[in-house]
Amino acid sequence: MRNAWIRHLEQVAGGDERIFLVVGDLGFSVVERFAAAYPGRFLNAGVAEQNMVSVAAGLAREGYFVFVYSIGNFVTLRCLEQIRNDVCLHNLPVCLVSVGGGFMYGALGPTHHLTEDIAAMRVMPGMRVYVPFCARSAEVVLEEVLGQCAPAYVRLGRQAVAVENVDGCGLVPVRKVEAGRAHTVVVSIGQLSADTVEFARREAADLFALCRIRPLPVEDLESVLGRYRRILVVEDHQLEGGAFGALAELSCGRWCLEPCCVKGFLLEGGREEELRRRFLRGEGPL
Residue 199 has what DSSP assignment? Predict the structure, then answer.
């Protein structure tokens, strides 16, 4: 997913001189082409993430639309004060782009697990929050982010199941059974796993991917989710504050929502797929 995103950023940057990419001494094998093509609009800020975000804010004040790319924990939790004070309180066009959300870097242990970033970013002033679910979704998100000069957060994962027809960043249909036949719907956030697709098939459930968490696509959600008796929300994020929390706030008890989310923290490492299966706790096992 990150490769598709950076290639698209490189293409768009050719016609948009506002675009500036800042990285935190990582992303190599991914960012070199951008750096070579636009050396005047690329900066490796080193292992100094708090300073990196402040530098990005300064560049944004000079007229750039800045993309800050790093591992999830480093570009969110480590520099939360700079995000709030330097970027969000000034409503600057800085887009924080993370890789490694959820258990993507599971083998590196709890310091590299990231299951609370959506909650943290949702409460930042004026911050838009996106969780693409496939490579094409990541490209569409980039286009929407550039359409508004305001802060944004994009969490990139791996592409597990590809979806070619992605119309916008709202609620995207992935699998639908015969009209009116499904009583259960699965709302998947982030990378679309084969386990989730198989669960929807086994349960004869409709399956949607939700990409924009803030602001929510309220009209789409209101028109779609009210049709179902059971709504299962799948995300590799803590129960509190993530997409399930956002949907529960919108629902105010009107919808029958069930979480398949992370509950608590774990002091161990492991393969991403194994950790997702073990620690996504829901009413329906995936």
Answer: H
